[in-house]
């Protein structure tokens, strides 16, 4: 009899424990269900100004990498207002945005200017939206010819191009190769949407937004809210937060020479570009409209 009572007590204890567990789990689940869910994020990356320093390149690459690795960011809008810059910097940013596009939707919003390298960077987006009065295009490359060396006994070279690295003809071909990279990026990005030949584009014309739309350089006239809505549609999210990723690197941007020159509305000079790159024969996807120089005799334009 005592044994039976003990068995019943044990069973009651087990039932009580199980009931307590069920109640606890139910309370915890109800608590989490009632908690406000964290909304997905649409990230904003602003690419503004001259892209002329290693520092600016690293800053933008950091922002792009953050967007790629952060799981809460569902898609990205890239706000572009830039005349371009050093070819290698522009290409780095372009390829980084393309990598981001493989994992998350990327929509570009041109806000006033996407000239030369500014447009090159924009080509990484799935879609390009531009404000109606934006200036877009100026496809091409500029470069400064290697210096001409007057023979002298003070300088001894083991080969005729040891000092300059190029002869005039091959240097011009190098510039043409860089233009080819630009045109291939346009062809890859715009494809059948393009309504103008690459040959005509390579003439370097700037187009206002409505004309750029007609030529297929962009997909739509609009502004930032339109770009955000498009990313939301591509990601199929209805409720979301918009976060400016570049605010995370704002202090770093303010230390960048190119960004500050742009903020202060300062045109570049050939001498400054040479000083920044430490090379007198660098290639630039840069609009010449923003270079202040009275002597372009030794500059190659394509």
Kindly describe this structure.
This protein is an alpha/beta fold. The chain has a single domain (41-139, 176-292), classed as Alpha-Beta Complex (2-enoyl-CoA Hydratase, Chain A, domain 1), CATH 3.90.226.10. 45% of the residues lie in helices and 20% in strands. It has helices spanning 2-34, 54-69, 87-103, 117-122, 168-190, 198-201, 209-215, 224-235, 250-253, 257-263, 270-277; strands at residues 41-51, 73-86, 106-115, 127-130, 135-137, 142-144, 206-208, 220-221, 241-244, 283-286, 299-301. Strands 1, 2, 3, 4, 5, 6, 7, 8, 9, 10 and 11 form an 11-stranded mixed β-sheet that branches. Helix 2 runs parallel beside helix 3. It is elongated and about 105 Å long. The N and C termini lie far apart (104 Å).
The run of helices and strands is: HEHEHEHEEEHHEHEHEHHHEE
Proportion of residues in β-strands? 15-25%
* Number of distinct helices: 11
The overall average pLDDT, rounded, is 82
Let me know the number of strands: 11
Low-pLDDT residue intervals, each spanning 5 or more residues: 31-36, 295-302
User: What general form does the structure show?
Assistant: elongated
Number of domains: 1
What is the gyration radius calculated from CA atoms?
A: 28 Å
């Amino acid at each position: 009899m005592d044994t039976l009572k003990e068995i019943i007590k044990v069973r009651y204890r087990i039932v009580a424990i199980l009931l307590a567990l069920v109640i606890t789990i139910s309370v915890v689940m109800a608590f989490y269900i009632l908690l406000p869910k964290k909304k997905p994020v649409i990230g904003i990356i602003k690419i503004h100004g001259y892209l002329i320093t290693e520092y600016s390149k690293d800053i933008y690459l950091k922002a792009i990498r953050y967007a790629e690795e952060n799981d809460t960011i569902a898609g990205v809008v890239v706000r572009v207002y830039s005349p371009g810059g050093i070819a290698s910097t522009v290409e780095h940013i372009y390829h980084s945005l393309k990598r981001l596009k493989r994992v998350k939707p990327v929509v570009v919003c041109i806000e006033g200017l996407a000239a030369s390298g500014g447009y090159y960077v924009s080509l990484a987006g799935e879609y390009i939206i531009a404000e109606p009065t934006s200036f877009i295009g100026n496809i091409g490359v500029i470069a400064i010819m290697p210096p001409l060396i007057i023979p002298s006994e003070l300088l001894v070279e083991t080969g005729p191009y040891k000092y300059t690295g190029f002869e005039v003809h091959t240097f011009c071909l190098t510039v043409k190769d860089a233009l080819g990279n630009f045109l291939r990026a346009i062809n890859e990005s715009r494809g059948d949407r393009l309504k103008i030949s690459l040959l005509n584009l390579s003439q370097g014309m700037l187009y206002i937004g409505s004309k750029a739309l007609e030529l297929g350089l962009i997909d739509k006239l609009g502004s930032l809210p339109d770009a955000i809505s498009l990313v939301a549609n591509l990601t199929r999210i209805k409720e979301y937060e918009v976060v400016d990723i570049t605010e995370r690197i704002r202090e770093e941007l303010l230390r960048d020479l190119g960004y500050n020159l742009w903020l202060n509305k300062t045109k570049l000079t050939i001498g400054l570009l040479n000083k920044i790159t430490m090379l007198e024969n660098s290639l630039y996807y840069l609009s010449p409209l923003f270079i202040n120089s009275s002597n372009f005799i030794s500059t190659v334009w394509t």
